[in-house]
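pinned: reference chain
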Amino acid sequence: KDFAKDLKLPPEEAFGMPQQYLVVNPLEGIHEGHVELKMKGVIQGKDDKVHIIVTPFEQEAMNKLNDRLGVVVNLIEGIESSFDNLDSCAGQVKDQIRKKIALVVDSLKDKQEIAKSEAKKLESSKITTLKVQAKTLSDHQGAINTVEFFIVVIVVDFVLSYTTNFKKIKK
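pinned: its C-alpha cells
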C-alpha cells in the first residue's frame, strides 16, 4: 500500500486480477534504463532469466521506478562529476595560493633589503653627525681650556701683583 501511495498509484482494490504481461529479466531492463514487455503471457527467452507476471498498475509502478532510477543515476553522475571538478579546482586553487605566497615572500625579501639599506644609510648619517658633534665639542672644550688657562694666568698675575703691592705698602 505504501509503495502504491509513494508512486501515486490507485489503491490496492484497483489492481484487480493480474493481466498476462511478462517482464523479461527486469534487473537487466532496469540497469539498461528500460523494461521489456511481452503480451499474452507467453514466456520467451533463455532459462537463466527471471520471469514475473505483473498487473498493468504494477507495470506502471515499475516504469515510474525505472524513471526515478534514471533520474537518480543522472544525479549520481552529476555528483561524481562535481567531485571531479572540485578536485580539479582544489588543485588549481592550491597552485594559485602557492604562487601568491611565493610573490608575497619575494616582496617581503625585497622590502627587507630596502629596509636594511635605509638602516645602513641612517646609521652612516648618524655616525657622521656624531663625529661632527664630537669635533665641535672638542673644539669648544679646547676653547674652554684656553679661557681657563688665561683666567688662571690673570688670577695668578693678580695675586702676584696684589702680594707685591701689599708688601710694598707694608714696608
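why pinned: Confidence is low (pLDDT under 50) at residues 13-43. DSSP finds three helices and three strands in the chain.
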